[in-house]
Write a structure and sequence with these properties.
13 helices; Aspartate Aminotransferase, domain 1; about 15% strand; 4-stranded antiparallel beta sheet; about 40% helix; binds 4'-deoxy-4'-aminopyridoxal-5'-phosphate; alpha/beta; single chain; Aspartate Aminotransferase, domain 2
């Protein structure tokens, strides 16, 4: 057989890339991926929609996902022309970088996919360190904007993995100074006490807001969306793969979004559990939790590697933030019982 060196065929920027690691570790209590502990879809709803869905599985789905897009647009008082749907917001990050190119600026630590996709697409990433409070370092960012002219800026607020919202004045300053696209990634906005950037969309043509259904109980559907000026949406839509939202996701998400009351209830439960979990963690001497507006808590713990392994042995999976925020673990807020099991295990582990 002919010898083919695959490595030599791969573009260097892809070859040197580390794939995003989303390992499936079997575990009783899964608190590592910022998912909701509640499925935001009631099975009673499935009964009347499922028959229609399965009868048309032989056909491609609506390429524009008009019904779902219409519901989302109505919920936020905008037009379907202001919305672009993605197979999760991960896909939308890909589309944004494919459309506008780089350099791509983002603060660190933040959601790693901004950097991974920039590299995958051969675009330069500009990573600017957050300050000690995990807020934006505006001086450094504004200098980088002037010198390096990034085409895209990603700001996750609330930020993953730190959990805090960036100061809105600082975000605003960046949007005002930048001559390119500023994406405010509001994946965790539903859990935040701040109102987010949606109300400012009409004032700033370069502002893009990114949201997802993943954190509010529908991660399995893979539905994220961009909200922006129609001109931006039209351009990004050119790189969108046809039929990127499958038939089941379109139908189930549309049905689920009609039941906003149930989603709202789950979100308030998660927020009050987050507050309780934060207070309990603060009471533990050797633990330092960081203030959060998201559905997870970043906390410092002695011997974080060992603590993470020992928690796993007790059936609790959290995310080790080694290499991102050293010495820290990130725990997703679960159900009351899950949170209690986590707290009990953590107290045993750090003894
Ligand atoms: N943005 C942020 C800040 C995230 O933390 C995540 C998920 N971890 C995403 C986007 C991606 O979400 P989705 O499931 O919609 O692809």
């Amino acid at each position: 057989m002919k010898k083919i060196e695959i490595k030599k065929l791969v573009r260097p920027n892809v070859h040197s890339l580390n794939a995003y690691s989303a390992k499936e570790i079997p575990c009783k209590i899964k608190l590592d991926a910022n998912e909701s502990p509640y499925s935001a879809f009631s099975v009673q709803r499935l009964a009347f929609s499922v028959k229609k869905i399965f009868q048309t599985l032989n056909r491609y789905p609506d390429p524009e996902a008009k019904v779902l897009k219409g519901i989302i647009a109505k919920n936020i008082n905008l037009k379907p022309e202001n919305i672009l749907l993605g197979n999760g917001s991960d896909e939308l990050i890909y589309y944004l970088i494919a459309t506008f190119g780089g350099p791509v600026l983002y603060p660190v630590p933040t959601f790693s996919i901004y950097g991974i996709i920039s590299q995958a697409l051969g675009e330069k990433g500009i990573a600017i360190k957050l300050d000690k409070e995990f807020d934006l370092n505006t001086d450094k960012i504004l200098t980088a904007i002037k010198k390096l002219r990034p085409k895209l800026i990603f700001l996750s607020s609330p930020n993953n993995p730190t959990g805090n919202c960036f100061s809105s004045d600082k975000i605003l300053k960046i949007i005002e100074v930048s001559r390119s696209i500023v994406v405010v990634d509001e994946a965790y906005q539903p859990f935040s006490s701040e109102r987010g950037f949606l109300p400012l969309l009409r004032d700033y043509k370069n502002l893009v807001i990114m949201r997802t259904l993943s954190k509010i109980g529908l991660a399995g559907l893979r539905v994220g969306f961009l909200i922006a000026d129609a001109g931006i949406i039209k351009e990004v839509n050119k790189v969108r793969l046809p039929f990127n939202i499958n038939l089941l996701s379109q139908a189930i998400a549309a049905e689920a979004l009609k039941n906003k009351r149930m989603m709202g209830r789950y979100i308030s439960t998660i927020v009050s559990e987050r507050e309780r979990l934060f207070d309990e963690l603060s009471e533990i001497k050797s633990i330092k939790p960081y203030p959060t507006e998201a559905n997870f808590i970043l906390f410092k713990v002695k011997n974080s590697d060992k603590a993470c392994q020992k928690l796993l042995r007790r059936g609790v999976l959290v995310r080790n933030m080694k290499g991102v925020v050293n010495g820290c673990l990130r725990v997703t807020v679960g159900t009351k019982n899950e949170n209690n099991s986590f707290l009990k295990a953590l107290k045993e582990v750090i003894k």
